[in-house]
Amino acid sequence: MRRGEEFAGAVRKGSRAGRPTLVAHFGMRAETDEPPLVGFVVSRAVGGAVTRNRVKRQLRHLMRDRLDRLPRGSLLVVRANPPAASARSERLAAELDVALDRLLRRREPSAAHRDGR
C-alpha cells in the first residue's frame, strides 16, 4: 500500500484490533477482485530510524506468510506501538495473529444471519 487514500480508508472506515505492540486496521475496497494491500505505520514514538526500519522489516516479513488469509479487495494497515521496538519476533507474530483473527472473525457473518434468524 502506498497511497494516502488507501491508508486513510482502512484507518477511518475500517475495523480495528489493538494489541500492546501493534494495532491493525482492516477495510475493504470497492474493487473486491483486486489483491489485498498491506501498509505499515511506524512512528518516531517507536524509536530512531534504525529501530523503526527494523520493526517495519519484521512486520513486513511476518505479514508475507499471512497474506493468504486476507480476502481479495482488502486493505490492512499495521501500526506499530512503542513496545514493538523491544518485542521479539515471536511476540510480534503472536500479536499479529490475534489481531488478524479478531478482524477476520468480525468480517464473517454470524451463524444466526446465515440461517436467516
From TrEMBL:
Which key words are in the record? Answer: Endonuclease, Hydrolase, Nuclease, RNA-binding, tRNA processing
Reaction catalysed by this enzyme:
Endonucleolytic cleavage of RNA, removing 5'-extranucleotides from tRNA precursor
GO MF, one example = ribonuclease P activity
Q: Does the keyword Metal-binding apply?
A: no
The record's section on SUPFAM superfamilies has: Ribosomal protein S5 domain 2-like
Q: This protein's superkingdom?
A: Bacteria
Its EC number is 3.1.26.5
**Pfam families referenced in this protein's UniProt entry, alphabetically:** Ribonuclease_P
Matches recorded under NCBIfam families: rnpA
How does this chain assemble?
Consists of a catalytic RNA component (M1 or rnpB) and a protein subunit.
Instruction: Extract the HAMAP family matched here.
Output: RNase_P
Function description: RNaseP catalyzes the removal of the 5'-leader sequence from pre-tRNA to produce the mature 5'-terminus. It can also cleave other RNA substrates such as 4.5S RNA. The protein component plays an auxiliary but essential role in vivo by binding to the 5'-leader sequence and broadening the substrate specificity of the ribozyme.
What family is this? Belongs to the RnpA family.
The protein's name is Ribonuclease P protein component
Q: To which species is this protein native? A: Streptosporangium jomthongense
